[in-house]
Specification:
The chain is of the alpha+beta class. It has 2 domains: 3-65 and 135-287 and 340-466, Outer membrane efflux proteins (OEP) (Up-down Bundle), CATH 1.20.1600.10; 70-130 and 304-339, no CATH class. It has helices spanning 3-29, 34-44, 46-66, 85-94, 105-109, 132-198, 204-239, 262-272, 274-294, 338-404, 410-445, and strands at 31-33, 72-82, 114-129, 247-250, 300-311, 320-330, 463-466. A 4-stranded antiparallel sheet has the order 2-3-5-6. Strands 1-7-4 form a 3-stranded antiparallel sheet. A hairpin with an 8-residue loop joins strand 5 and strand 6. The protein is elongated and about 140 Å long.
């Protein structure tokens, strides 16, 4: 066997044995579960990224507040040239070149221009800054905690958005499937009516009615296809994925039949809702804001150390060298009532935050009640619509049998088919609404987690294939 034939033989063996494995793996990577959809959103959604940046900002603010406890060291380099009598004499003194002839009145009153390079190293250490730094540190820590809590709330809202968009896409896909089945059924009715019309067993109006129904169903298919495209676009947006992605949604889901006690949910929601905890942190920060405003009535004290170099000709020259240490005590006697107004402002802001917290508490209760009753409604709708499908299927079977033997009219067949289609669609809506209602109740309670962290009994692994 020559080298060329051996190469082709090896290539065929590789394709035969390994290509199915590689292709299968690629197909597996295209599978997108609800769990993965949520995980992708938590990685790519820009709102969550923005919240992450807010947390980092809050962390930096804590560090900035703590910096007030540390000394400040400044390096200053300046240059001046002047014939101002006071500044000229001062420059000579700082340069340590003041001489006896400089005492002449003409020289003192009309000095020659003098240049000065001034190098300063200043050390400032606050000893007591009215307590502003300590209060500021506490405010920054509380603010960081509130930011993290709001980030958690945004995360929960994104998870809910994915779940809602996912099941809207699932519902749209099932509606398209249902419309396609209805189209096949309507086509079969047209064929049946044509056969019976040719044999003279039915009038032409039956055939026309079947054809009109077929046209209506085709319009339903067109609308369902468009609705599916829109639903996929919304799912892509929530996940932070490209709008070019296309999905073929598959899978079934079974909800967990878990009972809840409404009053307990309302009580626990005020302990678990991240946005309510964040509002509580803001109220605490408002209390610290009042404390911060009160610090304006306290004195401050700081220590200052300064080292100077002065020279006529060079930067960092050493013609004149000096140092200074000082303590500065400051106590405001009157600032035009500015401190009093700031204290009043802080107190009113605290009152405002307390009112907002009360309003949020009431809103949370309404949201929990609404989500609770929507969940109960969805559960009952699933049961009722399931029974309606079985009844509509049996009714259609009976009427079709009667029509074939001339005991029923085509309009009755079509009405029964419409009823069955409506029952199936209502059942699909009820199932999807049930999934969303469960997630909405968890969101209202503040306990919504990514599906990857939930028990298998609480999550349905609906699969989505990417194209």
């Amino acid at each position: 066997m020559d080298g060329k034939n051996f190469f082709y033989l090896s290539l065929l063996v590789f394709i035969f044995f390994f290509f199915p494995f590689i292709n299968g793996k690629a197909e597996e990577e295209k599978i997108l579960t609800l769990t993965r959809a949520v995980d992708l959103a938590l990685q790519k959604n820009p709102l969550l990224k923005s919240a992450d940046y807010s947390v980092e900002v809050a962390k930096a603010q804590v560090g900035s507040a703590r910096s007030g406890l540390l000394p400040r060291i400044d390096f200053i380099e300046g240059f001046s040239r002047t014939n101002n009598p006071m500044m000229a004499v001062g420059s000579k003194l700082n340069q340590e070149i003041f001489s006896a002839q400089d005492y002449e009145l003409n020289e003192l009153n009309h000095p020659s221009p003098i240049s000065n390079f001034n190098t300063q190293l200043i050390f400032t250490q606050p000893i007591f800054d009215q307590g502003k730094t300590w209060v500021g540190i506490k405010q920054a820590k509380i603010g960081k905690q509130a930011t993290e809590q709001m980030r958690e709330r945004i995360k929960q809202e994104i998870i809910f958005g994915v779940i809602e968009a996912y099941f809207q896409a699932f519902r749209a896909k099932e509606e398209l499937k249902l419309a396609s089945e209805s189209e096949k059924m309507a086509s079969a009715h047209v064929q049946l009516a044509e056969d019976l019309f040719r044999t003279g067993q039915v009038v032409k109006s039956d055939l026309l009615s079947a054809q009109v129904r077929l046209s209506e169903v085709k319009e339903m298919v067109i609308q369902a296809e468009n609705n599916l495209k829109i639903a996929k676009a919304m799912l892509n947006k929530v996940m932070g994925m490209s709008q070019e992605e296309d999905f073929e949604i598959e899978g079934e889901f079974s909800p967990e039949e878990k009972k809840f006690e409404l009053n307990r949910l309302i009580e626990e929601s005020r302990k678990k809702r991240p946005d309510f905890l964040a509002m509580d942190s803001q109220v605490k920060n408002g209390i610290e804001g009042v404390r911060m405003a009160k610090t304006n009535f306290f004195p401050s004290f700081q220590f200052i150390g300064q080292y100077d170099l002065n020279d006529r000709n060079e930067i960092w020259g050493e013609e004149g060298e000096s140092w200074t240490i000082a303590g500065v005590f400051r106590f405001n006697i009157f600032d035009g009532f500015n401190s009093s107004y700031k204290l009043k402002e802080a107190r009113e802001r605290l009152n405002q935050l307390n009112s907002q917290k009360e309003e949020l508490s009431e809103r949370i209760e309404v949201e929990v009640r609404q989500a609770f009753h929507q969940l109960e409604e969805a559960r009952e709708r699933v049961k009722v619509t399931g029974q309606a499908i079985a009844q509509a299927e049996e009714s259609l079977r009976i009427i079709k049998d009667r029509y074939q033997v001339g005991l029923a009219r085509m309009i009755e067949v079509l009405d029964s088919e419409v009823t069955l289609t409506r029952s199936k669609r209502n059942h699909i809506y009820a199932w999807c609404d049930l999934q969303v209602a469960r997630a909405r109740l968890d969101l209202a309670q503040g306990t919504l987690l990514p599906p990857s962290k939930l028990n298998e009994q609480q999550v349905s692994e609906n699969k989505v294939e990417l194209h």
